[in-house]
Amino acid sequence: MKRQRAEREGRKGELAAELFLRAKGWSILARRRKTRLGEIDLIARRAGTIAFIEVKWRRNAEDLALAIDEYRLRRVAAAVEAVAHEYADEGEDMRIDVILLAPGRLPHHIVNAWQP
Questions:
Q1: Using CA atoms, how far apart are residues 12 and 85, in angstroms rounded to an integer?
Q2: Which Gene3D superfamilies does this one have (predicted)?
Q3: pLDDT tens-digit profile of 52-100?
Q4: Among candidates 23, 9, 98, which has minimal Cα distance to 57?
Q5: Are 12 and 57 within 8 A, CB to CB?
Q6: What is the distance between the alpha carbons of residues 14 and 54, in angstroms, rounded to a whole number?
Q7: Does the residue 51 lie in any domain?
Q8: Is residue 71 part of a domain?
Q9: Phi-psi region of 23 (alpha: psi -120 to 50; beta: other; left: phi over 0)
Q10: Residue 100's domain spans which residues?
Q11: What is the pLDDT of residue 9?
């Protein structure tokens, strides 16, 4: 039951992140892109940049500080390496972003969150 609720809330968070990105001029290329190495929540394009986006939703804003860490970003980076060629055209920049969400707060978009 707890896992199902977390899944529903996570999907709501991903939808909120998608709407936020669309409002900022991004086109969504993929949602919940699964690879053998992990999952990428959103893949988006804007002005020659492809962003592979990890979305984190927490019920309490205070919990967002612990929502993302190097381990999670490394998993996203591995998944990105597996599929980046499917989304990025020659000459486009690629990056991994994070969007943190909690009730009563504006989305916090961390640009280029992973820099190996």
A1: 28
A2: 3.40.1350.10
A3: 999 999 988 888 888 888 999 999 999 999 999 999 989 999 999 999 9
A4: 9
A5: yes
A6: 9
A7: yes
A8: yes
A9: alpha
A10: 2-110
A11: 79
Q: Render pLDDT for 10-24 as a digit per residue (tens, 0 to 9).
A: 788 899 999 999 999
Q: Which residue has the tokens 């290329």?
A: 29
Q: CA 61 to CA 73: how far, in whole Å?
A: 20
Instruction: Report yes or no on 115 lying in a domain.
Output: no
Q: Which amino acid is at 27?
A: S
**50 vs 1: which has the higher pLDDT:** 50
| Count: domains in the chain | 1
On whether residue 116 sits in a domain, the answer given is no
56 and 11 Cβ atoms separated by less than 8 Å? no
**CATH (domain of 58):** 3.40.1350.10
Between the CA of residue 8 and those of 3, 4, 5, 40, what are the distances in Å?
Answer: 9, 6, 5, 17
Long-range contacts of 11-14 (CB under 8 A, 24+ apart): 12/57, 13/55, 13/56, 13/57, 13/101, 14/41, 14/42, 14/55, 14/57
Structure tokens at 49: 């940049």
What letter would DSSP give residue 89? P
Q: How far is CA 22 from CA 48, 70, 112, in A?
A: 15, 27, 18
